[in-house]
Write a structure and sequence with these properties.
Blueprint (H helix, E strand, L loop, with lengths): L4 E6 L6 E8 L5 E9 L2 H10 L6 H27 L8 E4 L2 E6 L4 E5 L2 H8 L3 E3 L3 H5 L9 H8 L6 E6 L2 E7 L6 E7 L2 H11 L8 H4 L5 H8 L2 H4 L13 H8 L9 H19 L5 E5 L6 H11 L4 E3 L10 H15 L6 H4 L9 E3 L2
Parallel strand pairs: 1-4, 4-7, 8-11, 11-12
Antiparallel strand pairs: 1-2, 2-3, 5-6, 7-13, 8-9, 9-10
The protein binds adenosine-5'-triphosphate and magnesium ion.
């Protein structure tokens, strides 16, 4: 067994699927291989349904947790096959799991994925449940990627901000010196995705092209920007618990002289995301973007406009494919856990102090 090879598994709020990476953590973290396994529409629907209260949740959670463990194990097997590595060469899998509730205000967060079954199927130790310990220590349990962002992207003469455009957008501010700040700044793709599914029948608006042909509706934009979460100071985190279909429907209700056209709504949602992100990046000398949202060209163009003259670049320009950063973060966090090193940044999450994160399921 190598002591330095870790697998990272991330399936995020977008419910698009699972990203798996193999990370060499012996020196500066290096991604050696990756695979993406998309979730089918049925699984996506069931997971989405679990994000809001419903019947028989315990059983549904447990069964979907088992199903996810099987999907995760298949992704790991595929990953290792592709790069000619054996399970025995991997020290651990860092498995984020699938968030079905995130309620730090109530003292809990829940990521499902049956880590015990994953360890059994993969034949590799699993580190899971990274967020609960931070919440137990009074933190938000999120975001957890900032320490990894700092390891990869902090620079000694530039005030950089890293933006992750997933379902939710989170930023990590990496000042030349001083405290790292990181927080969820609002939705990235989650609202645009649900609107695209409803009106185009597609899981996302590829390239943001549909949005790019619409016109921003100033009245709706104002209502979206009125959301109190946006004005809260960090530490803060959010999820589908807030930014969901009901939230959007409430803001689309009434008071419009003519009903807004779907394409203009999409343009407004894109503008809303861009404004939330740009507002959180103020003062950056360089903005480095990761997450699937980097594939939304219209959003990337709008961010570049709003943040000019600071450059807005994909993390690919800094050595790591933008769709792999979060999965790599959880491989790296697994290494931290097994080394007995803290994974959270207490200034980011608001926890009482640094904590060793995760629960270990031995091989
Ligand atoms: N070509 C594309 N054009 C527009 N949007 C895209 C494209 N490719 C991916 N996306 C968006 O990226 C999303 C997936 O991104 P990602 O996997 O980073 O999010 P996530 O699973 O929510 O992750 P996390 O919670 O870790 O941030 C998709 O749901 C979609 O909205
Ligand atoms: Mg994803």
């Amino acid at each position: 067994m190598s002591d330095s090879l870790y697998v990272g598994l991330m399936s995020g709020t977008s419910l698009d699927g699972v990203d798996a990476v193999l990370l060499d953590a012996s020196g500066a973290p290096r991604v050696l291989a990756s695979v993406h396994h998309p979730f089918d529409a049925a699984l996506r629907r069931e997971l989405l349904a679990l994000n809001s209260p419903g019947d028989n949740e315990v059983d549904r959670c447990a069964r979907l947790g088992n199903e996810l463990a099987k999907r995760y194990a298949a992704a790991v097997a595929d990953l290792l096959r592709g790069c000619g590595k054996a399970a025995a060469e991997v020290r651990a899998i860092g498995c984020h799991g699938q968030t079905v509730r995130h309620r730090p205000d109530r003292g809990y967060t829940l990521q499902i994925g049956n880590a015990a079954l994953l360890a059994e199927l993969a034949g590799i130790a699993v580190v899971a449940d990274f967020r609960s310990r931070d919440i137990a220590a009074g933190g938000q349990g999120a975001p957890l990627a900032p320490a990894f962002h700092a390891t990869l992207f902090r620079h000694r003469s530039e005030n950089r901000v890293v933006v992750n455009l997933g379902g939710i957008a989170n930023v990590t501010r990496l000042p030349i010196e001083g405290t790292i700040v990181g927080f969820d700044c609002g939705p990235a793709s989650c609202l645009m995705d649900l609107w695209a599914l409803k009106h185009l029948g597609r899981p996302y608006d590829a390239g943001g092209e549909w949005a790019a042909g619409g016109s921003v509706l100033p009245g709706l934009l104002e209502r979206l920007l009125d959301e109190p979460f946006l004005a809260l100071p960090p530490p803060k985190s959010t999820g589908r618990d807030l930014f969901n279909e009901a939230w959007l429907a409430a803001r689309l209700q009434g008071r419009f002289s003519t009903p807004p056209g779907p394409r203009d709504v999409q343009a407004t949602l894109l503008e809303f995301t861009a404004r939330c992100v740009a507002g959180a990046c103020k003062g950056a000398s360089r903005v480095i973007v990761c997450g699937g949202g980097t594939g939304n060209d219209a959003l990337m163009r709008r961010l570049a406009q709003l943040l000019a003259p600071s450059p807005v670049e994909s993390s690919a320009a800094h050595g790591l494919d933008p769709s792999l950063v979060e999965a790599a973060a959880f491989a790296w966090l697994a290494e931290r856990s097994l080394s007995g090193a803290p994974g959270n940044l207490a200034d980011v999450t608001g926890a009482r102090g640094p904590r060793v994160l995760g629960a270990v399921y031995p091989k």
